[in-house]
Amino acid sequence: GAVVSQHPSWVICKSGTSVKIECRSLDFQATTMFWYRQFPKQSLMLMATSNEGSKATYEQGVEKDKFLINHASLTLSTLTVTSAHPEDSSFYICSARDRRAGPYEQYFGPGTRLTVT
Amino acid sequence: AQTVTQSQPEMSVQEAETVTLSCTYDTSESDYYLFWYKQPPSRQMILVIRQEAYKQQNATENRFSVNFQKAAKSFSLKISDSQLGDAAMYFCAYRSGSQGNLIFGKGTKLSVKP
Q: Could you give the residue ranges of the DSSP H alpha helices within B1-114?
C-alpha cells in the first residue's frame, strides 16, 4: 500500500522559535496533501489543503501566517509553525491523496507530536 | 455544511463478541463517501472500511461490516469476533465527492475486555 512518512515524529522547541514538519509520499505522487491537528482525546481538525505548485487553502480560523504550508513537489509538503507558543503544542498529521488512484484513496502519515516549552 | 455525529464516546466489548459503533451524518449532497478509521495508541490512522453512497450494498471487510442507511443518514460499523487488537479510537468520516476533504466525527473509544 501507499506510504506517507512524517519527520520528525516528535519535536520539542522553545517558545518563539519556528519548527518545520515534513510530509512525504514515498511511493506515489501526491497531487493533494492535507494537514490536520489533533488535540488529546479529540478528533482530527483539518487545518489546510494544498495542491502541488499552488498556495494552500486554509480552513477558517487557521492563521496562515503562523502555519506556513508549502507543497513544492509531488512528494513533499512541509508545515512550518512560526513563532511557536505553548498553545501550539499538539499532534499534527498529514495526509496525501493521489487522484489517479481513485476518488477515495487518502493515506495518512504517522503524525508529529509538537511540544512547545 | 456537512456534519458527522458519533454519539458514543466510549464502548466496551468482550473478546470474541460483536459490537456496533454508531454514526450519523447530515448532508444535502448525493455524491459522497463514508469511512471508518481506526486510530490505535500509536495514533496512526488506519482505514477500516469505506462506503460509496451510490452503492446500496453494505461494505464488508473481513470482520468489519457497515450498516448503511442512506435515507436515515446512518452509517454504523459492526465488528464481529472482537479481538484485543481492535481496541482503539474509531472515527467515522464523510467526504464529499466534489470537495474531497474528510470530515471526522468526534470518535468512539473502543475497549476490548479479555
A: none
